[in-house]
Amino acid sequence: MEQIQLENVTFNVPEVLSCISKYQEHVRDIVNSNYVDFLSISNRDMLDDMKSLETDIKELIASTSQLTVDKSNVAWNDLRNYQRDLEEGIRGYKIARKLLSIHDLFESLNLSGNGYEKTAHILTKIKTMLDELDDPVLEELHFFQGLILRHETEYDKLLNDLDVTFNKLVQLQQRSFQNTKSVTIRIHKDENLLYQVVVTQLKTQHNFESVCQFLLENVFAPVIVKPVSLICDEKSNEQSVLIQLSYQLSVGEDLRPGYKTVLSNVMQIFYNLSNMNIVVSDDECLFKVLARQMKKRLCTLLMEQCLDRDIPDTIEGMKESSMVKDVCEFNTFLKTTNFVDGKNDDLLEEYANSIETIHQKKLCDNVLDTAVQIMKHESHEMVLIEDHEYQFVGSTSARLSSCMVTRTVVDLKKFLDKVLAEAFANGGAADRFIQTIATILERYMVDVPMANEKLLFKIPQQSALFRNDCTYLNYWLQKNDDKLKDHSSFATISEALKACGEDIFQHQLNTQRTQMMQALNGFKLSIHLVELGTEQQRAVRQCVRQFELLKNVWQTVLPESVYKQSLSGLVDQFLREIMKRIQNLEDITTAIGNGLVLLIDIITETLPNLFKEPSEIHQLVKQWTKLLQLRQILCGSLVEITELWAEGKGPLTMCFSAEEIKHMRIIWKMMMITIPSMLRPKEYHWIPRK
């Protein structure tokens, strides 16, 4: 039995190999004809024969595998040779079969009636077969690269045909003129062809970025930021749908359309664009493909360039606005039209929920901008603040007084009153309003000194007004402490306001002191001086004039207590410097003494008038009594001075020590007398200095 089977194998294997060789030769002719000489040869019958041969090969392999032959038998060697020949033949057969199948697929591309989908399907099968290299010998075949190149050519041709057809079905056109631009979109109503094109494009992973870019740049962006003339017509022409818009290339900000107009236009455009929204499956359509590439950009453009601008910046405007509802409805419309990408579908709804917060921020930004504009007013107008309106910090135990502040700070205070009232009238925005008040006061301490630096440091009245303004704002904080006490930052701001005004005013006082000391450079006294000249008198009069000017600009501006304290401090330093220089003289002649008395008379006649009550100078200026006693010493007789000293118990002892009296010598130098009672204990003689 086995002998009979072996004989069958001996007969069938050469026959099969002969058939394989025959078919390989035919495939070689086909390859040479189509990929070398480009001749057309029909191979449909051959494919059918090869299928039959494939069946015979499988049966033959099965029969040889069932044979059991003694390995020492000659028949075993014959069987092994037949199997080896059969394996080589099968390998050649598979290569020939694959090449012939690929060629047959290429040939089927030219059949009439092939649609875009079928063509794409065939090319996909060819690509799969070309990528499946079952035998490494395929890559070494010189014509195999020709097959790959032909596939690329056919695939590129398909993509190009799809683009051309899509562009015919969906025409996107734009024309620019000198000042205007016209955009036209025409969608043909050939749904079957459009379906084939779009489905095939999606299967070939077509990138619709050019369509998205056109819609964003030429349609949606202008509609969002510019007034447009929009025409949408899907009824007048049975063959197509028309979307046409035109607009100015350059448009002023004040002509931007409101958000309601923008949303209405965008919805109208989407409604008409839906004529090209081919539905591929339950989960895929053209709008979803476009949304994945442009929805986030479109929503961002809409929010930043339209909605943000139209959020009301007043409480009344927000109460009347329906923006939250409108934006939510627009977002629902986009979902209904399947313009969804799965990631940004709730972006507009989230924005709608944040409109109230954005409104509050916008309102507070507007409040801050208004406050800054008030601060920038160059108001030289002064406003009188009565004592019942204005209680200075630290003045609760003293009598209150009126003062002057700038019109600017009065306007700012009134504005802060309104903001604070709005804060408590709108509980939801109270914290943001109060934080804005803190920001306004912080900005005041920075912006106003920087903007008015020259005036504040050079003009005494301006520095006094700024001090009052800061204290006035500080008073406002104290007055509203019960409303602001929950915000710890205001305690710091209150101290900073007070310090800011005081620093500027103290800088002005230091400037005045420096100016006074420079004037006193002319008040020079020395032992070589015979009599006082005009230089000393000019120095004194210059200082007196400086005090009178300060009185003119400060007395009605500063609170009375602050005015008295500031000016009396300057006068006190002035008198101390004058008396120090007089007391430092070792010899005071009668002529110099008389000249000094005249200067002191000028001082005592003018300086008391710096204050509303001239007699107050005795309490306000510490050196005033000493100045008067110095005058008595300079013009008094020896007896009168002795009586004033009264052995260290007289009125002179209030301001002068024995050393100071001893140091001053007038005409006593010529008299050469001693005054034991004027000397300290255990001092007996005053020896004139040489």
From TrEMBL:
Keywords per UniProt: Cell cycle, Cell division, Centromere, Chromosome, Cytoplasm, Kinetochore, Meiosis, Mitosis, Nucleus
The Centromere/kinetochore protein zw10 C-terminal domain extends over 401-517
Subcellular localization(s) per the UniProt record:
Chromosome, Centromere, Kinetochore; Cytoplasm; Nucleus
Q: Which GO terms describe its biological process?
A: cell division; endoplasmic reticulum to Golgi vesicle-mediated transport; meiotic cell cycle; mitotic spindle assembly checkpoint signaling
Asked if the Swiss-Prot or TrEMBL record annotates the protein with the keyword Cytoplasm, the reply is yes
| UniProt GO cellular component terms | cytoplasm; nucleus; RZZ complex
Gene3D superfamilies hit by this protein: 1.10.357.150
Q: Which Pfam families match?
A: ZW10_C, ZW10_C2, Zw10_middle
Domain of life of the source: Eukaryota
What range(s) does the ZW10 C-terminal helical domain occupy?
538-664
Give every Centromere/kinetochore protein zw10 middle domain span.
Answer: 174-375
Q: Which family does it belong to?
A: Belongs to the ZW10 family.
User: What is this protein called in UniProt?
Assistant: Centromere/kinetochore protein zw10
Specify the species: Anopheles melas
